[in-house]
Design goal:
alpha/beta, Rossmann fold, 2 domains, 6-stranded parallel sheet, 10 helices, 33% helix
């Protein structure tokens, strides 16, 4: 998949273009991208995903930026897996935010030679998001561009959306989040030195340095699958501040149940959040915490065996 940082860098031929933020590349996003790829294949075009390298709210209302479901690299990998030929990861800046709906479409038409636009039913574009799906259809027709509008994807009678996935994770429901994402929610980072509380309890943990701006799920204990050095391990993971021994910022501490090595320092670790075990809680002593951790590890092993 080719990656461009601006529409003016496009040097290919005619295109079918999918538009959106694509945070998480969930089931609704996948349907949209796959429709774009199909349109491109049918008409002999190049399939392109047009998205942004930063959240539009970082320019419009910086204090309202939501934590992301994907890093930029994860988003690119997910888009590539959907089969797109190319992606435009454009910076969303003040000049772009000021374009009217008409100017937005004119800019894309002149830069990327589109024949098909593919958008979601609730897509908005142009200054203050005033352009809507039917506006895209109307404006596209002026340039001979067909617009295909993809309807909502529902799970449990509600629309799949990035905001609903965030809410599920913040409520401790990784199963629902995974259903909407089409995969488990994941966090990847380097293992670094932590509080060493797990070692004191007899359960040495890997302290994950997680990406800034990445959504942390509800504080508590999770059953996760951990991937390191090309292999998978069941893991009991604590997200939060350790109420029994609180110090500093929130952490992600992973105990890999069957890891054969002694240390994971400086390794890259990816966690898939499968099940929520319990919320964070304060224990009266380290001994009572140790007993609960042992019980949680048994729960994790049982749940992940059932997943196989």
């Amino acid at each position: 998949m080719d990656i461009f940082s601006h529409e003016r860098d496009w040097n290919g031929g005619e295109t079918a273009i999918a538009f959106g933020m694509f945070d998480g590349v969930h089931l609704g996003h996948r349907q949209l991208i796959e429709a774009t790829c199909q349109a491109a294949k049918t008409k002999g075009l190049t399939s392109v995903v047009f998205t942004f390298s930063n959240h539009p709210l970082s320019i419009i209302t910086p204090d309202r930026i939501p934590d992301g479901l994907d890093t930029a690299g994860e988003k690119l990998n997910d888009i590539a897996r959907c089969g797109a030929d190319a992606v435009i990861m454009r910076p969303f800046d003040a000049d772009f935010a000021s374009l009217s709906a008409e100017q937005f479409v004119e800019n894309i038409v002149h830069a990327m030679h589109p024949r098909v636009f593919v958008i979601g039913f609730n897509y908005s574009f142009g200054a203050k998001g005033r352009g809507r799906a039917e506006d895209m259809r109307r404006l596209g027709m002026q340039y001979g561009v067909e617009t295909r509008i993809i309807g909502r994807v529902e799970i449990g009678g509600e629309t799949v959306s990035s905001s609903r996935i965030r809410q599920a994770l913040l409520e401790g429901d990784p199963e629902l989040a995974a259903e909407m994402l089409g995969r488990p929610y994941r966090i990847e980072g380097k293992v670094e030195s932590g509080k060493h509380l797990g070692r004191r309890l007899g359960f040495p943990t890997a302290n994950l340095s997680f990406p800034a701006g990445k959504l942390l799920p509800r504080y508590g204990v999770y059953a996760c699958m951990a991937q390191v050095d090309g292999r998978e391990y069941a893991a009991a993971v604590n997200v939060g501040v350790h109420p029994t021994a609180p110090e500093g910022a929130p952490t992600i501490e992973a105990f890999l149940l069957d890891y054969p090595g002694e240390s994971l320092y400086d390794e890259t670790l990816m966690l898939e959040f499968r099940h929520f075990i319990r919320p964070e809680q304060r224990f009266e002593s380290l001994d009572s915490l140790r007993a609960e951790v042992l019980r949680n590890c048994e729960q994790v092993a049982t749940l992940l065996r059932r997943d196989r």
